[in-house]
Amino acid sequence: MSLKLGVIGTGAIGRDHIRRCSQTLLNSQVVAVTDINLEQAAKVVADLQIGAEVYPDGHALINSAHVEALLVTSWGPSHEEFVLAAIAAGKPVFCEKPLAVTADGCRKIVEAEVAHGKRLVQVGFMRPYDEGYRALKAVIDSGQIGEPLMLHCAHRNPSVGENYKTDMAITDTLIHELDVLRWLLADDYVSVQVVFPRKSSKALAHLRDPQIVLLETAKGTRIDVEVFVNCQYGYDIQCEVVGETGIARLPEPSQVQMRSGAKLSNAILMDWKDRFIAAYDVELQAFIDGVRAGQVSGPSAWDGFAAAVAADACIEAQNSGQIVKVGLPDRPAFYR
Ligand code: NAI
Ligand code: ISE
């Protein structure tokens, strides 16, 4: 039997996840959708020809007897409310990042899930499902480059819309590194600092872009992440791990190499949807399979909380220019 999914939010990623759950993945069926823009929700249903019911709001959808599990793909500030409602209804929920826009919001979700007594939440951090990051982690874990000492990373988007503010470089963009680098190193952050290089003339007046985030982990590894969301040339994710005896780099996505017009070239992708297309498939199939097997796994509410605690510290560091401590409490036994 296919898992009956309800989707809240039919914007860019909501539409893409509805498509993959309806057309690409196994054992799932989108039976319900909603959005504050109901016309858009109805159009997505019609365009994808999925015959799902359009619900008036997220709460009606969560509490529908036809919906077995939820995908929350609405704007970040609405995630906390919907994930808490899903837990209250006892339904598994895949929530796009960020789990909540503040650490306090994530903590409430962690507490609700622990009180429920069984994992229901998977956070949409897809990079641990990316083939390249998995290969990089396998090299680190094998000991081939010794202990990781330093990481040099970059998260570059070609451009962003006018609603994108300076703190979103952390809550919306860096949040992926905050999650995946913890996972890659099996370590937690202890301090952060944010510095601002010369501003790009391509960034809108209200946005400080690029930014460099400096992280220190409990084991003493130092990480620099360049976040540059108006780089113009492509969607480019870089990660280099410098170890005691060698260096390992995140592989580039596979592209045909061309010799043409007196140039040797490889195309660079422009869109996050394409860069991580396979990782999104794998993460959502894992959610569907996990729910059907009664065992939700993958990035947990605790991982969402840990990333948010670091994100809150980064925002404080953006504003103060100081080194800010990251005060993550001990991980509860429930999440070990
Ligand atoms: P979007 O702006 O294209 O779509 C968001 C949709 O949510 C809109 O259609 C909006 O009307 C709807 N919405 C907002 N509040 C709502 C509410 N209370 N109830 C129902 N619908 C509501 O944004 P996008 O790019 O699709 O992002 C959505 C979420 O997914 C964000 O949290 C974003 O950070 C995350 N995301 C994750 C990505 C990843 O790589 N994992 C990539 C892109 C987005
Ligand atoms: C977007 O919301 C994503 O999650 C993308 O993966 C990220 O690269 C982009 O910066 C965000 O705005």
- CATH homologous superfamily caption of the largest domain: Dihydrodipicolinate Reductase, domain 2
Give the overall average pLDDT. Answer: 97
Oligomer: single chain
Given helix and strand content, the structural type is alpha/beta
Strand order of the largest sheet: 12-11-7-10-9-8-15
Shape assignment = globular
Share of helical residues: 25-40%
Indicate how many domains the architecture comprises.
Answer: 2
Write a short abstract of this structure.
The protein has 336 residues and is an alpha/beta fold.
Descriptive overview:
The chain has 336 residues and is an alpha/beta fold. The protein folds into two domains: 3-127 and 278-300, 3-Layer(aba) Sandwich (Rossmann fold), CATH 3.40.50.720; 128-271 and 319-335, Dihydrodipicolinate Reductase, domain 2 (2-Layer Sandwich). 37% of the residues lie in helices and 23% in strands. It contains ten helices and 15 strands. It has helices at residues 12-24, 38-48, 58-62, 79-88, 103-116, 131-142, 168-185, 272-275, 277-292, 301-320; strands spanning 3-8, 28-34, 53-54, 69-72, 93-96, 121-124, 148-156, 189-195, 211-217, 222-228, 236-243, 247-249, 257-260, 263-266, 324-325. A seven-stranded mixed β-sheet has the order 12-11-7-10-9-8-15, covered by helices on one side. A six-stranded parallel β-sheet has the order 3-2-1-4-5-6, sandwiched between helices. The radius of gyration is 20 Å and the shape is globular. Bound molecules: 1,4-dihydronicotinamide adenine dinucleotide and (2R,3S,4s,5R,6S)-2,3,4,5,6-pentahydroxycyclohexanone (ISE). (2R,3S,4s,5R,6S)-2,3,4,5,6-pentahydroxycyclohexanone binds at residues 157, 172-173, 176, 272. (2R,3S,4s,5R,6S)-2,3,4,5,6-pentahydroxycyclohexanone binds next to helix 7.
